[in-house]
Amino acid sequence: MLIRNQHPDYRKPLEAIDAETLGVAAAETVERFLARRPNHRPTPLRSLPALAGELGLGAIHLKDEGYRLGLGSFKALGGAYAVIRLVLEAAKQTLGRPVDIAELHSPDVAKISATMTFGCATDGNHGRSVAQGAQLVGARSVIFVHGGVSNARVAAIARYGAVMERVAGTYDDSVAEAARVCAVNGWTVVSDTSWPGYERIPGLVMQGYTAIFREALEKLPETPTHVFIQSGVGGIAAAASGYLACRLGEARPTFVVVDPARAACIFETARQGKPVKLQRGEPTVMAMLECYEPSQVAWRVLSRVADAFMTVDDETAVEVMTLLARPLGHDPVVVAGESGGAGLAGLLVAARDPDMRAAIGLDATSRVLLVVTEGATDPDRYRELVGLTPGDIAITGK
């Protein structure tokens, strides 16, 4: 299912705060912070010419975030970046002077960060980023996970020294519990979703994601005509559309936001024209995107610069995982987790449907940018769905 953006704010300029958060200067700040990370490397940008030919498109390029900062997910950019920013801001307030990123591990800053605790809710990837960021600065982290988060993902977070708290219910229930417990204890919530009165930190998280698209534009042979991007609560979709709109203006690509059909909070919000909280239904295989309420700051951006919204089913998500593991022709092998290829799933659905192609202007000249947002962050689940382990793919090249 695909709908065009009919919101009254569509095509209006971003609000000043959002343009500042997601604009060109902000992305340059993110890059300056990343340069201080010893394991920072731009992630690969892969071309899929055989698949583009199969779908009747001009080009498909895919940013592979499975290689991001050792965490295997784009979320490595958001939570850890926000934690570092918040530590430096606390140091500035305490020391009464500006504190640069170069001082992050100085004795004065370390003394301050050691007193700080950061908490968040997560489906897996965001929590790892917050925990890693806290470990990097010598702070404490407490991560809240709901019952649907696999033991493998919990263990992956705990490896960064996080205290893990299980919460009954959905991701949204864990968000509420994290906010409650952090408020009681005086801890700092580093959430990737926002609510009334809580926008700045989710804005910093989204700001971290702009690095993906800054890097992509540096490597792409031509500006993309289309971007298909998965949403969850909307953070990465807002970062993509906001940054590229700020940087490219009227030359920006068509943005298509992709939701799992079983957790389509952004799609339903777009359809109704206002933030919608969904009732929990049957779980989706796209576990990292299983969110039932949008981030309000993300929706504020998407209502202005997203062009279309669509849903994809679980079967197409698994098809994408297999297609990337066993690619057409000489296209490169890509390891994509259950949620990682949702943008490509949206492209497959749209490219195969004549009405959808026409609605968003897909044709033989289209140049599509996609993001594989995560690798096999749960290897057992990956093997179950694809029939191969990530190691099998790396060894055999199939």
Q: Mean of the pLDDT scores?
A: 94
How many domains make up the 3D coordinates? 2
Question: Approximately what portion of the residues adopt beta-strand conformation?
Answer: 5-15%
Counting helices, strands and paired strands, the structural category is alpha/beta
Largest sheet: 7 strands, mixed
Uncertain stretches: none
Supply the CATH architecture of the largest domain: 3-Layer(aba) Sandwich
Number of helices: 17
At the third CATH level, what is the topology name of the largest domain?
Answer: Rossmann fold
Based on CA atoms alone, the radius of gyration comes out at 20 Å
* Residue share in helix: 40-55%
Would you state the CATH class of the largest domain? Alpha Beta
Protein architecture, described:
The chain has 2 domains: 2-73 and 209-396, Rossmann fold; 79-191, Rossmann fold. With 398 residues, the protein is of the alpha/beta class. It is globular and about 60 Å long. Helix 6 links the parallel strand 4 (117-122) and strand 5. It has helices spanning 16-22, 24-34, 49-55, 79-95, 107-113, 125-137, 151-158, 171-185, 200-219, 235-248, 265-272, 296-305, 314-325, 342-351, 354-360, 379-386, 390-396, and strands at residues 2-4, 45-47, 59-64, 117-122, 140-146, 163-167, 188-189, 226-230, 254-260, 308-312, 367-372. It has a 7-stranded mixed β-sheet with strand order 1-10-9-8-11-3-2, sandwiched between helices. It has a 4-stranded parallel β-sheet with strand order 6-5-4-7, sandwiched between helices.
